[in-house]
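<goal> How does this chain fold?
<sample>
Here is the protein in question

***
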Amino acid sequence: MARLAEACPDLHPVETTVPLNRPALSLGPGPRGVQDARRWVVDTCHEIGRDDLVECAELGVSELVTNALLHGRPPLSVRVRGTREHPRVEVRDQSTDVPPMPTTGPREEDDLLLTFGRGLGIVARCSTAWGVDVEEDGKTVWFAPAARPGGDPVPGRVTGEPPATTAAPSPDEMRIDIVGVPLRMFVEFQRHYRELRREVRLLALAHESDYPLAKDLSDLFGSLERDLREGIGAGQIEHALTSGAATADLHVAMPRPTAATIGHFIELLDLADAFCREERLLSLARTPDQRRFQRWFLSEFVRQHGGEAPLSWKDAPVSRPQSSVS
């Protein structure tokens, strides 16, 4: 942790903000979904004190929701992330198809901003940054609202994780046994990690100069992403969930260097918590229960890499809430 903190010293607050942890708004089909999204985003802008962004936020989210209804796959949702200084509107659907990116010319029709459903050209003229973030189970189209609509179009960016590939077997593999994994907490771990990974990636992409720590975190997540994705036994967890079990034992074969590297996620997640708790992000840091579970889960890779026997969750000191976690 100390080594990472020295490399990423930007842990002091740059702005004063109140954490905004409103859940995403689920959208129904048809025009009502567009209306609900517009109202929700406008209310959120007022709530965080960004009345100056209302016009562009309303225009942009109307366009994104319209496109998602026409070309995406339900369910659809809208939310606001980022920071109060640089909020970001996101519309998510279950399709992984990337929408056609606009090729906006220097001059367009005068009524461009009066018509919805015309691709992403409106979003490009209502934002300071925007893009499409694709994952295995869907995509998020996002934008950072500008102070006024109708400016020069901003190029969009397509980001996301490449399709998972099967790596060749390593001659130096070891077996990791993770015993008694509580499935509910593991699912929360997956959800928290995906949200955090996307948050720092998009925040760094849109406002790298304002949030250098987000860029550092995003780079670190990227460098360790494959190790985590291939090493957590997600397929076994899915099978256990389908069977209705409350806990599961994971048996993972992985290269020895990978088992050691996964331990760095403990430091990385602690560093990300410090960033969140400075109240610069409009999202939650981990809860104490999440932190205890993640510390045990990731530590098992490091412990067993060092030759120690598996330690189940129920027997681990961190599984008891009264234990202090530094």
Observations:
- The first strand starts at residue 25 and ends at 27.
